[in-house]
UniProtKB/TrEMBL annotation:
It comes from Smutsornis africanus. Keywords: Leucine-rich repeat, Phosphoprotein, Repeat, Ubl conjugation pathway. Residues 190-206 have a biased composition (Basic and acidic residues). This is Leucine-rich repeat-containing protein 41. Residues 326-344 have a biased composition (Polar residues). Residues 182-219, 278-301, 322-350 are annotated as: Disordered. One of its GO terms (cellular component) is nucleus. It comes from the Eukaryota. InterPro entries: Leu_rpt_41, LRR_dom_sf. Residues 278-300 have a biased composition (Basic residues).
Amino acid sequence: GLSTQPIWRKLWDDVMKTRPPNSENITCWRKKFLETFFSNVLHGVLDVSSDWRLNDRHFSPLLHSSPHVSQLTLCNMLQGVVELTAEHNQKVLENLAVSLRILKFQHLLSSDQSIRRSLVLLLHRLIHHGSVSQVSMYSWPVPDTVLLILILSMSAGFWRSGNALVYQSSPCGLCREKDKAQSQESEEERAERGHCDGREWSDGENQKGSPRAPEEADAEVNRYRADVCLSSVLSRPRSPLQNQACEEASSKVPCDHTSIQGGSSRHVSDQLSCHPLRKTRRRPKSAVGKKRRCLRRSRGPHADPEDLYDFVFTVAREDNSGLLDKNSTTEGENAENGTSSSPGSPCAGHAGCKKRGGSAGIFSLKAAHRFRSVSTLELFSIPLTGETCRTLSNLLSSWVSLENLVLSYNGLGANIFCILSGLRALSRHSDCHLRVVRVSDVFSHMPCMELVRCILSAFPRLHTLSVSFDLKNQLEGNRPEGNPSCSEAEIPESCLEQLEIRFPREPLHTAFLVPVLKASKSLQQLSLDSATLPCSQELGLLLEALKECNPNLKKLSFHDMNLAEHQKEVLLLLQDPVLQEITFSFCRLFESSNTEFLSEIINTVKRNSSLKSLKLPGNRLGNHRLVALADIFSEDSSSSLCQLDVSSNCIKPDGLLEFTKKLEGHIQQRGGQIQFTYLRLFQNWLDQDAETAQEALRRLKAVCNVVNDSWDSSQAFADYISVM
C-alpha cells in the first residue's frame, strides 16, 4: 500500500540527470521513467555501462522496460529500427506489440535500403499484428517520398503479404500461420465442392454439421482468390491492363503466386490464376510488352532491390505511359456509385489531381486483403506533393478504421480537392469510423465555409471538425472557384459536437454559417477565429442563430476578432443561461469603451450562475481593470465562476498584489465559500518587480491554482518593436 513515486522520481534524477519537461503534469513517475529509459537506451542517449546498477550482462534494458512503453518516437535516420528488428530483440518487439499505442516520427531524414526493410518489418509487427492505434509525423521539411508513402501505406493496413522479399529476409510467423490456414481451408473447400459436383451438397452432409453453406463456400473461395490476386497486383506498380496482358501470356509464361516457407515454394497457380478483377477499358498493347511484364513477374522468390520501391508506389502512382486516364473507371465501381465518373471517386478530375495521365484511382482497394490499420493519423508540417496527395487520397478512400485525421501545414493548395475526393469515397462505406477531422494550412484554396459544408455533407456522423487557414491564396486574382459539389451540397442532420473555424481574414457571413448550425443540433463547442464582421448586425444575427439552432452549446470562443463596437452582443453572451465557458481572446473589448462597460460585465457575470470559465486574454485589461474583476467574487455574487484567464493583459506586479488582497477580502466575507480554482497569468509584466510578484503569487496560491510563466517582457517588447 506504499507509493513508490518518490523512488522513481529519485531514480530519474540519478539515471537521467535531466529535468523532465512538464514535470508538474506527470502522474506516474514509474511509467515516465521506464518509457524514457527505453527510448534513451534505444537511441544511444543513455549509456547503461556508466551506472553500476545497470551494468549487468544478465540485464537487458530494452527487454526490462519494453512492457511499459506506450509511446515511441523515431527520429532523424530512424536510429533504433534495425536494433528493434534484430533477432536477439524478438521478445522486445513482442512486448512492444502489446504495449505500444502511439508511434511518432520526427525530423526524419533519408535512410538506406536496409533501414527501410527493417522499418517495414517493424511497422508490420507493431501495426498489423500489434496494438499501435496512432501514427504521428512531425517536421519533415523535405520528405523522402518513398519513405513517406511507405509509412502511410502500412499505417493504412497495406503490406505485401506473402512477399518473397520480406519473407526471405525475416519471416513473419503470424502471417505464415494465417496463410497456411487459409490455404488449407481453401483446399478443403475445393475438395468438398469437387466431391459434391462443384455446387450440389447432399442433405445428409448438411445434417452432419457442414461448416458452411454452398453459397458461403463459394464466396470464401472467391474472396481468397481475389485477395491473393489483388495482393499480386499491389506488389507491382501495374495497371489493370497489365493484368490482362499477364493473363493472355499465361500460356507461354506461367504466372504463379508463391509462398516461401522453410526455403521451399509451393505453386498455387492451379487454383489462383491472374484473372483481372474487373473489366476495364483497354488500349492495345504489343505482345512483346506483355511477355516482358510477365517474365518480370515470374522471377519467383529472388526479388530485386527495387521491390521495396515498387511496394511503396503500388497504391497510387503516376503512369507515365498514360495507360489509364482519369475516365477509365471500372464498370463495377460505376455501378456501385451510380455514375460514370463520380466526383466521389478518389481524385476524379479535380483541379488538384490533374497531373499527366495517372490518378490515385488506378488500383481498386475494395477487394484487397487488408491488415489491421491505425485509427489516428496526424501529419504536422510535412509538405505533401501531388503524388503523395493522390496516394493518401486513395488510402483514405477505404480506410474505414480511421477515426481521427489531422492534416496540419502540409502545403496542400489545390490538392485539397484530392484529399476531399478520397474522404467522400470513404464516407460511402457503411462501416466508416471517422469522427474527428482537423485541417490547417497557411494558404486557403477554397472558402472556409465551403470546405466545412463539403466535409459535413459527406460525414454527418463527425463529432469534431476544425478548419484553419492563416492567409488567403497568394494568387488572389487567379484563385480558382470553389468546388460546386461542395458549395451546393446539402448538409444532413449531423452529430457534430465541436466546430472550429479559423478564417484567413475572411468576412463572417452568418447566412453561410446558419445552414451548418441548423444541421448541428448537438453542437456543444464553437470557436470562430480571425474573422471580420462586414456589418454591425452580423454578430447579432449569429447570436440569434445560436440561440435558435444550438440549445446545447456549452463553449463559445472568439479569437482575434474586433468586438470593440459590439458591447451589447458581448453582454448578451455573458447573460446566456446555458453557456458554461466563454472566451474573448484578443478581441479588443476595452479599446473604445468606458468604465461603465466594465461594470456591466462584472454585474452580468455576478448574476450568471451557469458560467464556469471566463477567458479574457489579450484585451489590455491593465492593473485597474484586473482589480475591478475581483468584485465578481463579492459577497452579493451568485457567480459559479471557477476559471479566469487574464493572460497577455499588461498586468504588473503591484496590480496583481492589489487584486490578490481584494480577492482575499471577498473570500473572508463569504466565510471561505468560493468556487474559484484556476487563474491563468501567462505573458504579463510580472518580471518588472520580482519581489512584489512573488508575494502576490504566494498569497494567490493559497486561494487557487495559479498558472504562469517566467516571461521576459522587455525582450518581448523589443521583438515587437523590431517587427513593426
